[in-house]
Amino acid sequence: MPNQLTDENILAALGGVKDPEIGRDLVSLGMVKSVNIDGSVVDLTVELTTPACPLKAKIESDIGDALTALGASLVRVDWAANVKRTFGGPATDLIPGVRNTIAVASGKGGVGKSTVAVNLAVSLARDGATVGLLDADITGPNVPLMMGTQGAHVTGTGGRPNPVVAHGVKMMSIQYFLQADAPVIWRGPLIHSAIAQFLRDVEWGELDYLVIDLPPGTGDAALSLSQLIPLTGAVIVTTPQEVSLLDARKAVAMFNKVNVRTLGVIENMSGFVCPDCGSEHDIFGSGGGAKIARELQLDVLGRIPIEPGVRSGGDAGVPITSSQYPDGDESAAGRALREVARTVAGRISVLAAPSVVAAAS
Ligand SMILES: Nc1ncnc2c1ncn2[C@@H]1O[C@H](COP(=O)(O)OP(=O)(O)OP(=O)(O)O)[C@@H](O)[C@H]1O
Ligand SMILES: [Mg+2]
Q1: What is the model's pTM?
Q2: From CA 103, how far away is CA 270, in angstroms rounded?
Q3: In 3D, which of 163, 140, 147 has the Cα closest to residue 115?
Q4: Which amino acids bring their CB within 6 angstroms of ligand 1?
Q5: Nearest CA to ligand 1 atom 8
Q6: What is the number of the ligand 1 atom nearest to the C-alpha of 269?
Q7: What are the chain's domains?
Q8: pLDDT digits (tens, 9 = 90+) for 35-59
């Protein structure tokens, strides 16, 4: 193959490589940041719309194919990332440095919201994003325990608390202001003002993603949140059984009512693989997430099996996506949680893509 490697030819070839999720080519999306040719070796810098890109491997192989066809013997891609804001209008005053907000919600309690929120945040951070995690469960805060920061207390000056940092994630929870085991028995208005303060006063800095762990149901915290800040979207966690699905429908309806888009449904506790015999048991039934997604025209963002390591990781303050990183030596649930995080990041990238924002504004 004759060497046809020139800047022009390379850019023309990359103009035929699409970001599979956004559906447009890398050059017109401005993702190719530099090209360096040394004989038949090409070095590229490609800027992704999220470091947690679910299709990086596909993009890399498509680039390789396109440039090999021009005579390249070796193509090396240096990945960068620039997470864009999904809010069409001006940034909100409350959280000016935050580019995207993801609410993790469910209708029913105990389905794994906090587990999903914590692992979503840790996974995005492990992939290289700057991530915050807000525990909006004021009366039943679980984030500190699950992130191993139960004894932590806030520091900061001038009424601007610093987030507590663990597993690469900046966090805030009412628990950091309380003595251990002290109950919070606040009603709506106080919950609203606590959430407003967590958003406005905490030194979040620049964040690619702020993940928000909501209490169960369709109560005050979810409504407050939707009134206080623009939400990129909500992910609804459900378990497969009918009672959980019933409540998940209500959660989706509530978000519709307050004009918050639902990014999709996560089916948690979806099957248990017996460690002794290896066979799978559907303890809570199966396919419930898919059923509700179909019915409400939503996507299933992932199915997470029941696995003892998910529970023990939460109890020990070391989320499974932290202990099992990097790729390769992880369990089915660890992998499912990481894939969910990348899927969510991918969805958000599509929402933030220029044409989508332009069409929405
Ligand atoms: N996939 C899973 N495999 C095993 N255990 C899990 C899984 N998902 C969640 N759990 C465990 O189930 C329990 C409930 O999960 P979690 O606290 O995340 O639910 P929640 O929806 O946030 O509850 P609440 O409504 O009380 O806020 C926890 O002990 C958690 O470790
Ligand atoms: Mg919870």
Answers
A1: 0.91
A2: 21
A3: 147
A4: 106, 109-115, 137, 140, 142, 215-216, 268-269, 304, 306-307, 310-311, 314, 333
A5: 112
A6: 1
A7: 7-81 (3.30.300.130), 101-360 (3.40.50.300)
A8: 999 999 999 999 999 999 999 999 9
